[in-house]
Amino acid sequence: MIHDLGSSRRSFLKSSAVSAAALSAANSLGALRASSPMHTGGRAQLKIGLVGCGGRGSGAGVQALMADKDNILWAVGDAFADRLQSGLSGITEAMGESGRKDQVQVAGERRFVGLDAIDKVLGSGIDVILLATPPGFRPMQIEKSVKQGVHIFAEKPVATDAPGLRRVLAACAEAKQKNLTFVSGLCYRYHDGRREIVKRLQDGAIGEIQAIHGNYLTGELWNFPRKPTWTDMELQLRNWLYYPWLSGDMIAEQHIHSLDVMAWIKKDVYPTKCYSLGGRQKRTEAQYGVIYDHFSTVYEWADGTRGFSYCRQQDGTYHNVNEYVLGTEGKADVFAHQITGKTEWQMQGKMGDMYQNEHDEMFAAIRAGKQIDNSHYMCESTLMAIMGRMAAYTGQEISREKALNSTELLMPNGVTLDMPTNAMQIAVPGLTKFS
Question: Is the pLDDT of residue 430 over 90?
């Protein structure tokens, strides 16, 4: 998710640090790497590497450190020096305001700039890696992280095309065999209220679920004007949201949260097919690349349940981010944590921060020698988003199997700053072909 919706990254980082009032701590060292140094008190340090120092990566860095006082930020990497410096400065400031600045231990020789930063971060002796680069790079970075044998936090989505997703599926199977913890950035799964209402829906609180309506209707996001020194590739990398090879389009990069909740409500059974309407109405200038600014997608499950999915990024329009569920015995407002009908229920009380919960649970599991494996829903929800994009771009009905077996390759191998940019055109339904 993009978090810069009216608040600065500085305030986001500060609130991330301050909100972590209860920190996870387990006594067992479990699956910690044998090479980890020990504090004099006997608890092992966990060395954390961060790749991708933008707003989401910086936020994840703070949350990972706040999860345990013996977690240290050891190495960072980003494609661009200015992004690395601003992200690391934000993390350092946030941890300083929390009185825990000593957990930031990124020496100059462990600050890596370039598109190969992932290799250098992994080679620095870390135990856990946080992956927050543009999603197109995720398959390659996940493969390398699993091979290195480190625990992984990966932002969503985990691929922008089916060939990339198939690579991730293979890497996740290997990670499971290695007993690596793998936590996904699909953060709604770590929200206290959503966990409770989804459990109740799965247990039949509104009877048989017949339809799920998911909205992600928001405003427009950031854009960085071109500087004279930037190559075409650097322009796209810095504005990665607007290029499907890097982001997967907005249905994958942002709306995937709604799609994931819809499938979660269905007990992680995923739709078999979908069709979609989408296009560019308002965000039509060249600065917005080649992505759409709205999608309207109908997903169908094998049992006949329909999912109605709407997403839009347009300023001056109605905003709503929520899921609504209709059943044979009632209905649910997911973000309000409210059920009406045969069962009347609404969750009360304070709920923890879902972003912090992800990291608290991740690091507690690692220290206890237990495995968290979010890979199934992480990959399947990515596929659900890719299906929707394919259906909108082509104007065709797309099945899960068809999407998974697609040969369309959006993300090239061996990206460099001076290579020609991807020449993908704006998709036109009825003319753009499925491959």
Answer: yes
Tally of helices (H runs) and strands (E runs) in the chain: 14, 15
249-272 average pLDDT score:
98
For residue 315, the surrounding DSSP H or E stretch is none
Cβ-proximal residues to 359 (8 Å cutoff; 6+ apart), any chain: 60, 63, 64, 66, 67, 153, 183
Can you give the pLDDT at residue 43? 65
Q: How far is CA 264 from CA 2, 207, 257, 335, in A?
A: 21, 16, 10, 14
Torsion of CA 8, 11, 16, 18, to 10 degrees: 180
pLDDT of residue 208: 98
According to CATH, what is the number of the domain 192-350+380-404?
Answer: 3.30.360.10
Supply the DSSP string of 368-398, one letter for each residue: HT---B-HHHHHHHHHHHHHHHHHHHH-S-E
| pLDDT band at residue 211 using 50, 70 and 90 as cut-offs | very high
Please say whether the beta carbons of 283 and 313 come within 8 A. Answer: yes
Q: Could you count the other beta carbons within 10 Å of the beta carbon of residue 431?
A: 10
Where are the alpha helices (H) located in 127-161, listed in sequence order?
Answer: 138-148
pLDDT digits (tens, 9 = 90+) for 178-202: 999 999 999 999 999 999 999 999 9
- State how far the Cα of 80 lies from the Cα of 234, in Å rounded to an integer: 9
Distances (CA, A) of 127 to 50, 73, 100, 303, 402: 11, 10, 20, 43, 37
Determine the 3-state secondary structure of 98 from DSSP: coil
- Side-chain-side CA neighbours of 365 within 13 Å: the count stands at 21
* pTM listed for this prediction: 0.91
Distances in Å between the Cα of 100 and the Cα atoms of 67, 69, 130 are 12, 8, 20
Instruction: State the average pLDDT over residues 47-60.
Output: 97
DSSP 78: E
Q: Is 199 exposed, middle or buried (0-12, 13-18, 19+ CB in 10 A)?
A: exposed
What residue segments make up the domains of the chain, in order of their start? Answer: 9-188+357-375, 192-350+380-404
Each residue of 59-73: b (16+ CB within 10 Å) or e? Answer: bbbbbbbbbbebbbb
Euclidean distance between CA atoms 55 and 155, whole angstroms: 12
Topology at the third CATH level for domain 9-188+357-375 = Rossmann fold (3.40.50)
Mean pLDDT for the stretch of residues 307-334: 98
- pLDDT of the residue at 423: 72
In 217-353, which residue ranges form alpha helices assigned H by DSSP? 232-238, 244-247, 250-253, 256-265
Tokens of 337: 């944590």
* Structure tokens that stand for 168 in this block: 């991730």
> 9-188+357-375 and 192-350+380-404: same fold?
no
